[in-house]
Amino acid sequence: MGFEKFLFYVFALITLWAAGMVITRRNPVHAVLFLVLAFVTSAALWVLLEAEFLGIVLILVYVGAVMVLFLFVVMMLDVDIATLRAGFIRYLPLGALVTVVMAIEMLLVVGPANFGLDTFPAPAPLGADVSNTRELGLLLYTVYLYPVEIASVILLVAIVAAIRLTLRHRPDTKYIDPSRQVSVKKGPDRIRIVKMATEDRVPMPALAGGHSQDKEETE
């Protein structure tokens, strides 16, 4: 076993372990942190496959931006961990069944019969002057142009739908009207000056020793 294959098995095992911890942790913050670990080890696997651009993008975009945003959102939400723990055991058999079915489907699709070395032999190592970023761009914007455009439209529709859902007017929610803020003018309807008579100064609470001393003098 070469050193490269050894690294592949190490990163693959860490990725599988981190993915399992994501779906078994009862604390959402811990699950997000394990998902970050899974992304980092997946990026290492991309680098081993000589796809440095995809590995760097996976770390910069997902680990550096998306997962940090997820982490802040999960920490800001008031998640009832006790309720999550109560429902974990109840849905465990169904989750195990779905896991087994998905594993069988993945083995049937990407198993040795369809993606073995006989069907797809190991590619020759690329030279140092080959840019995988350029090769990826050529494939995306020539051969797979229409799928990329369709995916872009779907993502745009999802963004618009998410914004529309957040702009729902609810009777118990306060909203800011910028046009009313800009049209505000000074006048008695905006500012009212009230003159109040001075009140007697409230004495500061005395210290414990002084209070007891005053009490003794009063007695």
Mean of all residue-level pLDDT scores: 79
CATH class of the largest domain: Mainly Alpha
Order of helices and strands: HHHHHHHHHH
Instruction: Flag low-confidence runs.
Output: 210-219
Family: Belongs to the complex I subunit 6 family.
Subunit structure: Composed of 13 different subunits. Subunits NuoA, H, J, K, L, M, N constitute the membrane sector of the complex.
Protein name: NADH-quinone oxidoreductase subunit J
Keywords: Cell membrane, Membrane, NAD, Oxidoreductase, Quinone, Transmembrane, Transmembrane helix, Ubiquinone
Description:
It is a single chain. The chain has 219 residues and is mainly alpha-helical. It folds into 3 domains: 1-82, Four Helix Bundle (Hemerythrin (Met), subunit A), CATH 1.20.120.1200; 86-120; 131-167, no CATH class. Helix content is 69%, strand content 0%. It is built from 10 helices and no strands. It has helices spanning 3-24, 28-48, 52-76, 81-90, 92-110, 112-115, 132-143, 145-166, 178-182, 208-218. α1 (3-24) runs antiparallel to α2 and α2 runs antiparallel to α3. The longest helix is centred in the N-terminal third of the chain and has 25 residues, at 52-76. It is elongated and about 95 Å long. The N and C termini lie far apart (94 Å). The model is unreliable at 210-219 (pLDDT under 50).
